[in-house]
Amino acid sequence: MAIPNTAIDTDSSKGSPVADFAFDESLVEFSVPKADWLRINNKAFDGILTSAFIFDGQGRVLLVQRAATDSMPNLWEAPGGAVDAGDASILAGCAREVREEAGLVARRMVRLVTEGLPGRTEGWSVFTNRDGTKVICGFGFEVEVEPGREVVLDEREHQAFVWAGEEDVRRGEVEGRKIPLTGAMMRNKLLEAFRLRREEK
């Protein structure tokens, strides 16, 4: 069952929803601000990041290439980024990143996407920043977007995009173009996103 997003942007003079999206009832725990999620789950992570797995009508996933001047230059990933303190919820933070990084509008948060590793029951990944001073929690979500919109990148963060099939991800190549990913964690989540969609059919 899909639940409407009811998070209100208190900074808006109209008090309108921060994003007009729905989310599956399995994602209700992520419909709260990040500070509340950390408190409810008794976690002390220094930050929360989200990744959005967006599929087109041909079942391909959107990948974006990081800018040459950014950290992890020229590597490929799903759109996403940090959930901000001002985001009304973790899901709203994901929707904001989809808009900022790809110019797309989230319409439905479909499901949680984990790394799909045997024996792992938690729904998040944990990693550190580059200098190892902060511990970050990462969530992945399959996201349906408003149809008919073109991908528009923020060139300060990303320089190119491709739509990749499952075998493209496995090979690390799309139509002869190499797509080295940001790491094993991203590859695992991408392949798990494809697996979950297959199981649904």
Features:
201 residues; alpha+beta; Nucleoside Triphosphate Pyrophosphohydrolase; three-stranded antiparallel sheet; Nudix hydrolase domain-containing protein
Description:
The radius of gyration is 16 Å and the shape is globular. Helices cover 21% and strands 29% of the residues. 33% of the residues are buried. The chain contains four helices and twelve strands. Strands 1, 2, 3, 6, 7, 8 and 9 form a seven-stranded mixed beta sheet that branches. A three-stranded antiparallel beta sheet has the order 5-4-10. The chain has helices at residues 34-40, 90-102, 166-171, 184-200, and strands spanning 2-4, 22-24, 47-53, 61-66, 76-77, 80-82, 106-113, 125-128, 135-145, 158-164, 173-174, 177-178. With 201 residues, it is α+β, with helices and mostly antiparallel strands. InterPro entries: NUDIX_hydrolase-like_dom_sf, NUDIX_hydrolase_dom. This is Nudix hydrolase domain-containing protein. Pfam families: NUDIX. Residues 45-187 form the Nudix hydrolase domain.
